Amino acid sequence: MPKLSSNLHNSFLMRLLRSARNDKTMSGHVIARNEVTKQSHICRILQVLLPVYFLLILVFCAMPFTANALSIGNTVSDDAARLKVAAESVMTQANNVTASSDVDHIWNYVDHLWANDQQIEAKQYIEAGLSLAPFNYKYQAKLALILAKQGNNAEAFDRASIVYQKSEDPATVKLILGLLGKDDAAPFKPVEKIEFASPTVVLLTIGDINPLLVKELQHKISDFSGLATVVLSGPQVLPPPDRSYFKSEIKRMRGTILAMPEVSAYLATSKIDAAELRTNDEMFVQTMIKFLEQSNQAAADSFGKNMQLAKLRAQQWKYDTLRDYIIEKVKNFRSQNWLLVGVTECDLFMEDSNYVFAGTNPHAQAIISYKRFMGDFNNEPQNRKRLLARLFKQFLSVFGFLNGMIRCTFPDCARVFPRTLAEHDEKPEHLCNDCRQTLDKLLKISIQKPEKQR
Ligand SMILES: [Zn+2]
Q1: Is the pTM of this model over 0.85?
Q2: 413 Cα to the center of ligand 1, angstroms
Q3: CA–CA distances in Å: residue 445 to residues 61, 215, 226
């Protein structure tokens, strides 16, 4: 196999990563038009230049997962001693930049200790991990629990307060509720028949959602608009996803990989039918793992692990699918004054788009997804206040459409179109004069005026 010069290697990496990132940075109705051509060109470069195992790892590491999914060579084992050695090797690294990316080794050992009720022993490892990754609120929560156990109540409370304020993960928040003297929020009521006397915002949860976030959204909407706002718990079990990154990535790369001489030789020796690998995704993955195991066990482990994550995380639902699904679920319950807005953590898309933040059918219903507003999705520290602000702006945008309004173009308004998440962040958490007055008139309400509006 020819050797790559490091420049060529780097520029290739940049291109591959950029092509994967396109999907993340583009918004709404934009589609990557030259993607197919560009990718097949990349495939040709790959075919000539890279060893197969390297290719497989690159392909699946370039997928737009969260940061956690990108760790390589991170094998979980029941062997405590091995976990301990791996954790301590990271702790003794002099260079923090390298160590930060390996911090999962420390967390793996902490998880092992925690599962075996050795919380106090875990403390020094948690502190070492947090010195490299201080915004990991799950382990901040665990440290708070240990501190409380050791009688350091003030420090435990301070840490727990930050976790409560920032964490976007309901399970993490649940860990520290007791330390803060807070109760777990009561579950939302299931969908039921309610006749509202006046227009009422009905937030319907779709699938597994963050209850604290949705409750905060509920309060923010009613404070802002003066409209009664209720949350109803919608369907937990969802239809299967319409798109799966797992499937599409395999489809995209399979031809190139199967055409490589090393792979062909392996298939011939192992008497594996290449035709079957072309149609059976699972068999393709398992075969590639076996192929990688011959020369590089760590690469095989990483590949297998990343494929598992791909199956779990990179799924998308068509707006129409979830819309039809909730219409069916509420058809016997909804009445005239329902302003129905579904809220989901599922990633949404529409025809001709990589993804959408939301979809609306005017005078009928809307669905908002907060998946792409989350810190983990964007490789940012979690920050629930920021997440809520993003979700609320999306609500304002969608709520106008739901009530039959057209798209606003005034830049100081939550209802303008953002091409990127950065543009979405740039929008204010209020409506411009025109949008506010139109909505006031339509719903006979009086929406909060920002200070500067006259
Ligand atoms: Zn406006």
Answers
A1: no
A2: 5
A3: 50, 22, 7
Distances in Å between the Cα of 428 and the Cα atoms of 26, 366, 394 are 20, 21, 11
- 80-180 classified as CATH 1.25.40.10: yes
* CATH code assigned to 189-240+316-443: 3.40.390.10
Residues contacting 34, CB < 8 A, separation 6+: none
**Ligand 1 mean position to 438 CA, how many Å?**
9
Give percent of the chain above pLDDT 90: 62
Give the Cα separation of 235 and 213 in Å (integer).
18
Tens digit of each residue's pLDDT (9 = 90 or more) over 277-302:
998 888 999 999 999 999 888 888 88
Whole-number Å distance, alpha carbon 212 to ligand 1 midpoint, is 28
Type of residue numbered 128: A
Helix 104-115 with 137-149: angle, nearest 10 deg: 40
Using the mean position of ligand 1's atoms as its centre, give its distance from the Cα of residue 128 in Å. Answer: 48
Cα diameter, the chain: 78
Beta strands in 281-379 (DSSP E): 315-318, 338-344, 347-349, 358-361, 365-369
CA 368 to ligand 1 centroid distance, Å: 19
Give the helix ranges, DSSP H, for 314-383. 319-330, 375-378
Mean pLDDT for 114-138 is: 96
**Rounded to the nearest whole angstrom, what is the distance from the C-alpha of residue 396 to the centroid of ligand 1?**
10
Confidence of residue 51 (pLDDT cuts 50, 70, 90): low
Q: What is the pLDDT of residues 395-447, one digit of tens each?
A: 999 999 999 999 999 999 999 999 999 999 999 999 999 999 999 999 999 88
Residue 317 to residue 294: CA distance in whole angstroms: 37
Query: For residues 239 and 319, what is the distance between their CA atoms, to the nearest angstrom?
Result: 12
- Cβ atoms within 10 Å of 33's Cβ, excluding its own: 8
Q: Which tens digit of pLDDT belongs to each residue from 143-159?
A: 999 999 999 999 999 99
